[in-house]
Write a structure and sequence with these properties.
By secondary structure, the protein is an alpha+beta fold. It has three helices and three strands, in the order H-E-E-E-H-H. Strand 1 and strand 2 form a beta hairpin.
């Protein structure tokens, strides 16, 4: 006949181990997510502050926000694309060469490395139009109307 200590040993201990498994999963998931985020930032050439809450499963990333202006037309990089643009979401503005000025930092809290996004860059609308027209953009009345409607 099984006494109380046998019941605790054969049922209680496995249940306690099963109760700890979600904590182990969250810890390992956070660890590998933080590693992937740091690798992505290093590959894109971005300097950021990263912190991980291993028990909570949340990764905090502080990325710089930029104010950009086009290069002068006489500079070499004006007519060429950047050799190493960002491959992260929201980083399409890094395709071109810009004068960049850090205006602050944007804090992101993510749980998966695929949620990481580059903050939007600030630029004057007139400078952007001039730059895009130099690049061969064709103005579209519908597009300009949509910019006006959205507040630009």
């Amino acid at each position: 006949m099984a006494d109380a200590s046998d019941v605790i040993t054969y049922i209680g201990v496995p249940l306690a181990v099963l109760g700890v498994l979600p904590i182990f999963y969250t810890f390992t998931n956070s660890f590998f997510t933080l590693r992937n985020v740091k690798r992505s930032l290093r590959r894109c050439g971005l300097e950021a502050t990263t912190r991980g809450s291993y028990m909570g499963g949340v990764i905090e990333v502080s990325l710089p926000r930029y104010s950009v202006t086009p290069l002068e037309r006489t500079e070499d990089g004006y007519w060429t694309q950047d050799t190493k643009p960002s491959t992260l979401k929201g980083g399409t503005w890094t395709i071109f060469n810009w004068n960049q000025l850090v205006t602050g930092h944007a804090m992101q809290r993510i749980q998966y490395s695929s949620d990481l996004k580059v903050p939007q860059a600030e630029i004057e609308l007139e400078e952007l139009f001039e730059f895009m027209l130099d690049r061969g953009a064709v103005p579209d009345a519908k597009g300009i109307h949509m910019l006006r409607v959205s507040g630009l």
